[in-house]
Amino acid sequence: MRRSLQQEIRQTQAFPSLEEEAFLGLQRTAGLLLQAFTRELKAYDLSAAQYNTLRILRGAGGEALTCGDIGERLVTPGPDVTRLLDRLEGRGLVARLRDEADRRIVRARITDQGLALLADLDRPVEHGLRQLLGPLGEERLRTLILLLDRVREGL
Questions:
Q1: Whole-model pTM?
Q2: Which of 76, 83, 85, 90 is closest to 107 using CA atoms?
Q3: CA distance linking residue 39 with residue 129, whole number of Å
Q4: How far apart are the C-alpha atoms of 115 and 125, rounded to whole Å?
Q5: I need a labelling partner for 107 at 20 to 30 A (CA). Which of 32, 48, 71, 130 fits?
Q6: Which residue from 114, 134, 110, 132 is spatially nearest to 122, judged by alpha carbons?
Q7: Given pLDDT bands bounded at 50, 70 and 90, which one contains residue 4?
């Protein structure tokens, strides 16, 4: 049986507006999805932000990115990119290099070890996401994606 957000969070009064209910529903859903995703990554000793950073660096190909470049591409902005890179570099998943043109700029690139870790994660992550979101079906997923794109357009 489907439970409404109001029932789930045990709110006794109606939401003041549809917008507030939708906003809280997005927050609640995103939080629960992130918790489930984080459980999958725990076996690999990675946080969601570290995983996202590795995927960004893999997506850059051989190009090394600055902290600013990485920060702009993070799905959930906010974490200290320098600290993220410190941890990933300490594990040998990322290498940092000084920019040849401007020695003050530090760039990061994914290492072969980082690529191997992501390759190991690709299948379990895909499977996990299918289990979490697959029940919606293709049409509803496409609609959800369009709706979320629409919301972000206004930001």
A1: 0.86
A2: 85
A3: 12
A4: 15
A5: 48
A6: 114
A7: confident
